Amino acid sequence: MKRxxxxxxLAGSTMMAASLHNxxxxxxxxxxxxxxxxxxxxxYANSEVDLVGNLAVFxxxxxxxxxxxxxxxxxxxxxxxKANNTLGDVNGNAYPVKSVIIVDEKATPEQRxxxxxxxxxxxxxxxxxxxxxxxxxxxxxxxxxxxxSRVGKLSAGTLAQIRTRALNPGDNHCSNEVTWYPPLTKLxxxxxxxxxxxxxxxxxxxxxxxxxxKRSAFVGSFHxxx
Length: 226
Hints:
Shape: globular
Order of helices and strands: HEEHEEEEHEEEEEEEE
Number of strands: 14
Oligomer: single chain
């Protein structure tokens, strides 16, 4: 009986250790830019809805953590989407959405699969119909520690690019600007930002774009635990 109890305890400890080992705990930083202003007033928003805002680049950098038991520290992944309509419009339907996923080329084969799975978890329905997966060197950097004033850069080889700066009083054109659309993914903290660059020149979406100098970006941080 004692041996049976001891065996059960050891089995339980092993299962608990395995569960803790595979538990998802990730934190990192995020950036996005789309082709419609996300920080704007009704006059600008109404002039863009249904016409633009259906294209976006967004990406995550994992500072620390594991996904499905695979460590992803220091790696990044980018999603690029072409929607049916303006993303975030509560009165419209953005679907169907076609997407491309760009994975950090320095990741191992196991990490590449984990990054793709992680991006699809974070991107939800936006990254379910994937037409192409590319592997590129990804640069994801922020200058400064204050999220409100950070300058950000995200580049995925020559395929996609975002550059941001903080919004300033000169960016208020209507005098009643607000954060009109939410970020495309769940974040711990997010701030709208000015997109100095927002471009995609790859394949898979039957379109490319360069849409700079708009109030169309977000910078933020995420913490996923499950």
